[in-house]
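> forwarded from #structure-qc
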């Protein structure tokens, strides 16, 4: 089931910094962590846009989110920079794989 903009419950939790809910989703083996909404955004990138620091830190523990790009080719580092979030930039830079070039799998 999808909500506004084709968001799944997981993407909504990422957007609104519901870290406890995201942790529950991540515990599920059947979670499609990189499923997109109708606009091509993913939960991890949505968390970077909405400055959901706690959620970003949770998701960075999963290899599936590293090097993701949205439908425009933006990666997490670009999104954090665009939104002027220096704390998030530092977190992403500490996880060096985020800035690597590449396409989504």
């Amino acid at each position: 089931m999808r909500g506004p903009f084709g968001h799944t419950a997981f993407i909504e939790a990422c957007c609104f910094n519901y870290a406890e809910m995201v942790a529950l989703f991540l515990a599920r083996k059947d979670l499609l962590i990189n499923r997109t909404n109708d606009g091509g955004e993913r939960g991890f990138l949505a968390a970077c846009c909405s400055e959901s620091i706690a959620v970003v830190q949770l998701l960075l523990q999963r290899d599936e989110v590293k090097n993701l790009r949205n439908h425009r080719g933006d990666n997490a580092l670009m999104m954090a920079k665009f939104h002027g979030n220096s704390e998030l930039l530092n977190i992403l830079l500490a996880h060096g794989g985020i800035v690597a070039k590449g396409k989504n799998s």
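QC bot note: Residues 48 and 64 are 15 Å apart (CA to CA). Residues 86-94 form the longest helix (9 residues).
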